[in-house]
Amino acid sequence: EKVRVKFIRNYPDDASENTEEKKLGRAMVRLGSGEGSLKELKQNVALLGYVLSGQVPEASSFLASNPAALHKETLSVAQSIVESLKLEGSEELLKSLQEAVEKSSKSNAIQSLLENSVKASVQKFEPKLLADYGESYQEWAKKFEAAVQRQLELQTVEERKASIQKTLSELEAKRQNLWFFENRDDIDIQIYKKKVYYPKRWFGKKKKPKAADTFYVPPTITHNG
C-alpha cells in the first residue's frame, strides 16, 4: 500500500523585516518600556524605536499618548528618520510630529537628561557597589594568598626531594672514587693474578742453510761430450 506524504516547505523570512534598523528599533522599544525614575528618558527612546522599526501606527499612538514627555530633539530626530526611511502611510505621523515640535516646551537636549540620570544612578548605587566590590576583593585576595602558599609548599617539597637526590648521587660518585683509590693496589694484584702466561714452544735447533755448489748441475741438464 502506498502512502502519499506532503511536506511543508519552510519559506525564508522576509529579509525586509530583519534589517539592522528594525532590529535596533525593536530593541529600543523594549528598552523604553516600563516605569521608574527614567520613565521620561525611556519614553523618548521608545518613540525613536517605533519609528526605526517602521511601526507607524504604534508611533502615532505613542506620540498622541505621551506628548508632554517628548523633547523637541527627539521629535526632530523622529521626523528625520521617517523622511529618510520613506515609511509607507507616514504622512499623518509626519504632520503630528511637526505639530508636536512646535508645541513642545522641552528644549533641553536628551544628552543632558541622560547624563543627569547616569549621575543620579551613580550617587544611588555607587556606595553599595564599592562595598560589594571591596568584600569580593578581600575574599579573592585571601583565596589567592592561600593558593600561592600551597604552591610554595609543594614547590619546597619538590625542591627538597631534588636536592636530596642530587646530594645522594654526588656522595655515591665520591664513594666510588674513594673506593678505587683505597683499593688500587688490591685491584692491580687481582689483575696480575688473572693474567695468563703461556710457555714458549720449542721448534728445534735452527738449521744453517746449505751453501750452493758452484759446479752443481741439475739432473735435468745433460753434459755434451
TrEMBL record:
Q: Which domain of life is it from?
A: Eukaryota
* Cellular component GO terms, alphabetical: mitochondrion
Fetch the Pfam families from UniProt.
MRP-S27
Query: Per its UniProt record, what InterPro entries does this chain match?
Result: mS27/PTCD2, Ribosomal_mS27
Q: Where in the cell is it found?
A: Mitochondrion
Q: Which residues form a coiled coil?
A: none
This chain belongs to the protein called GM17853
Please spell out the taxonomic lineage of the organism that makes this protein.
Eukaryota, Metazoa, Ecdysozoa, Arthropoda, Hexapoda
